[in-house]
Amino acid sequence: MVRCRNGKIVATIGPSSHDFEKLEQLHLAGVDVFRLNFSHSSYEEHTKVYNAIRAIGRKHHTFSTILADLQGPKLRIGAFTDGKVFLEVGDVLRLDLNSTPGDKQRVYIPHPEILSALYPGAVVLMDDGKLKFEVTSCSEDHANLKVLVGGTLSDRKGVSVPDVKLPIPALTEKDLKDLDFVLKLGVDWIALSFVQIVEDIEEAKNIIKGRAGVVSKLEKPVAIKNLEPIVAASDAIMVARGDLGVEMDQEELPSIQRNIVKTCRRLGKPVIVATQMLESMITSPIPTRAEVSDIANASYQYADATMLSAETAAGKYPLEAVTIMDKIIKKTEQDPSRIISLEDINISPHVSDIDSLCAAAKIMAEYSSAKAIILFAGVFETIVRCSRFRPHCPIIFITDSTELACKSGLCNGVYAFFAEGIALTDEATFSIARATCLERKFADIGDKVIILNSIKETIAIRNI
After folding, report:
1. Do 154 and 180 share a structural domain?
2. Contact (CB, 8 A) for 236 and 414
3. Per-residue pLDDT of the chain (464 residues; tens, 9 = 90+)
4. Residue 55 lies in a domain
5. Are 315 and 280 in contact (CB under 8 A)?
6. pTM of the predicted model, to two decimals?
7. Residues 371 and 454 placed together within one structural domain of the fold
8. Domain, as residue range, for 106
9. Cα(137)–Cα(147) distance, rounded to whole angstroms?
C-alpha cells in the first residue's frame, strides 16, 4: 500500500470505528495516525483497538502510528437544585466551596485553585464559552461573577478562565494512571492537555523517559504567549482550535493557527491542525465548502497532519470523512502555486550538519526530478529535520527499528519501511533503496532517487 500525499491524516477512534473491519477500512482509506481518546472508553477497549491497529499494520506491511490523548484537567461547576438556572445580563452568580446544590445566586466549584487565581476584572467563561462573566470581587473561598452574556446554565458545565494562568498541573491523577497504562501498551505519541508552560512538558517527559513522543496541545491563551519555548520543548504540537476558540476571540484563530504552524516548521516540530475540520460529516455524507477550504488551507500552510475527532469516533460517516480528507489533501498538494517559502524555515536555532544534508537532499531532488528521497537514519531528530524542509517528493525512511518507523508516521511526507539488519555500505543501502522503490512503486527502472545516509553523513543521486 502506497500513499500518494505528504500531509498525514489523524483519526480519532470511538464507537463508530473501533472494530477490526472498520479500523482496516480507515487505514486503507488513508489514516496514518490513530488517536485513542482517554476522555472515553475503558482500558480493555483501548487495548483491543491498539492490538487491532498493530495487527492491521502487520497484515498490510505498514506502520500505523498510535497517539494516546490524555484527558487533562476538567474544570467544572457543581450541580443545581433544579438541574439548571437561567441567568440574565447583570445578574450576579457566586462561586464557592460549598458542595450543596446551587441556585440562581450561587453554585459550587470544586476547584479552590481557580478561586485563588482570580482577580477583579478577570473574565470567566462557562459551557464552552456560551456564558460570559466578569469577576467583581473574590477571595480564597468564593468569587462573585457579573453576567455579561447570559443563558441557561446546567449541572457540571465546564469553566475556563482565558487570561489567567491557573496553578493546576497538566497531569492529573487520572492522567498519571493513564500514562502508565499507555507506556506499557506501547503507543508512539502521547498528547498532553492543558499545557500552559514549559514545565508542564518537562514533567511529562521526566515520566515518559523517551518511550514515546510528547504532543503538546495548545488550547489556552497563556500557551500562545509562551509559544516558542513550548514548541521548542515539545516533540510535536497540536493546534486544539476547539478550546482555543472558546478562550480567545474566534477571529484571531486563523492568524494564530498560521503562526503556530510556521513556528513548528521553523523549529522542525511536527504539527497537527485539529477540531471541527469536517464537523458537518458527523451527520452528513458530504462536507460543507468551508470545511473543504479549511483542510486545504492547513495543507497550503504545510501542516504535518490534519485531524478528525467526532467525525470518525462517533459520526455516521467515518470512512467517507477520511476518504474526502484524503482527496482534498492530494488535490491541494498537486496545485502548482503551492510553493513553500524556504526563507521562513531555513532560519533555525540549531542548524547542524544534518540540516545541511537535508537541505541539500531537497534541492537535489528538485533539480534532478527525483522520485523520492531515501533516508537512512538512526534517530528521530534526523527524520524530523528532513521532513522540516518539505521536499515535493516523498521521504522513504528505511529502518530496522519498528519504534522509529511507527513514530515517524506523524511527519509530513515521511513513509517508513522495515529492512532487517541494514548494512550501511553505499552499495548495500542502494540495493535496499532500489528494492523498496520498485516493490512499493515509488519509482521505476531508470528513475532518479536521492539516497541520504545520515548515519554516515553521505548523500548521492542514483538511478534505479
Report:
1. no
2. no
3. 667 789 999 999 999 999 999 999 999 999 999 999 999 889 999 999 999 999 999 999 899 999 999 999 889 999 999 999 999 999 999 999 999 999 999 999 999 989 999 999 999 999 988 999 999 999 999 999 999 999 999 999 999 898 788 888 889 999 999 999 999 999 999 999 999 999 999 999 999 999 999 999 999 899 999 999 999 999 999 999 988 888 888 899 999 999 999 999 989 999 999 999 999 999 999 999 999 999 999 999 999 999 999 999 999 999 999 999 999 999 999 998 876 554 455 555 556 788 888 989 999 999 999 999 999 988 999 999 999 999 989 999 999 899 999 999 999 999 998 887 666 677 778 888 888 888 888 888 989 999 998 888 888 888 88
4. yes
5. no
6. 0.91
7. yes
8. 84-160
9. 13
Residues 233 and 327 grouped into a single domain: yes
- 129: CATH: 2.40.33.10
Query: Which triple of cell numbers denotes residue 288?
Result: 460543507
Length of the chain as a residue count: 464
Query: For residues 378 and 454, is the Cβ–Cβ distance under 8 A?
Result: yes
* Grid cell digits, residue 78: 457543581
Tell me the C-alpha distance between 51 and 20, whole Å.
9
